[in-house]
């Protein structure tokens, strides 16, 4: 997994992944139109790796932004590396093709560059993204992830996706796929939360040993959703050591946090809806 001059990394299937990607997740408080504009700005700035997901409910807007930048001659489709994700309500193997078809239709793409299992947790199939029972507890589904992986392999064989990988998997779950009898394609990546406060050192070492790319989301610190994160926990970008390094090298704390990942051989996702920050984050290269 060597860096090359065009700042991409070769994956174990021979395809290359740009080492800096643009994240498209946005909370419900952010209008979909704002995400669409941000993707266009990101492409204008130079991002070629766009990270999306069915769960984000904005693939239509993201696809439209990408197609607009193709139409105006900024990029060609083959210049863009788009990551899509199989949501947990579609983990049952027979549902994988229809889930992929939904994303392709929303994006209006013929193929997705990288398609990954969003989480190893399977949820009850249906229209609800987070199905809950009468007590508000999530309703899980019992799915063999090895069967899900075989369905992912079939999508690759059909030419609908170029590369396949996973997200939020631990070592044991990765080994389950890697040791699967009749494995046709190894996961090319494992996308996980990763930043200086959660550096994933052991998981990174394992992934490197298996030639699996680690992709870091929340690289600038955990997404501070009040439902999951204690609001009194320290903010990564306010960390004194990070800020001292930023001052020393005349860079923003965000750039130091992103550069930290690149120097570890990690593909990093940066997210912002502000042109100034979108431009600044891309300077990490």
TrEMBL record:
SUPFAM superfamilies linked to this entry: NAD(P)-linked oxidoreductase
Recorded hits in Gene3D superfamilies, A to Z, give: NADP-dependent oxidoreductase domain
Residues carrying the site annotation Lowers pKa of active site Tyr = 85
Active-site residues are: 56 (proton donor)
Q: InterPro entries, alphabetically?
A: AKR, AKR1C, Aldo/ket_reductase_CS, NAD(P)_OxRdtase_dom_sf, NADP_OxRdtase_dom
Q: Name one Pfam family in it.
A: Aldo_ket_red
- Per UniProt, substrate binds at 118
- TM segment ranges: none
Q: Residue limits of the NADP-dependent oxidoreductase domain?
A: 20-284
**Source organism, top-level taxon:** Eukaryota
**Molecular functions per Gene Ontology:** oxidoreductase activity
Query: Which family, according to UniProt?
Result: Belongs to the aldo/keto reductase family.
Q: What's the protein here called? A: Aldo-keto reductase family 1 member C1 homolog
What is the protein's species of origin? Terrapene triunguis (Three-toed box turtle)
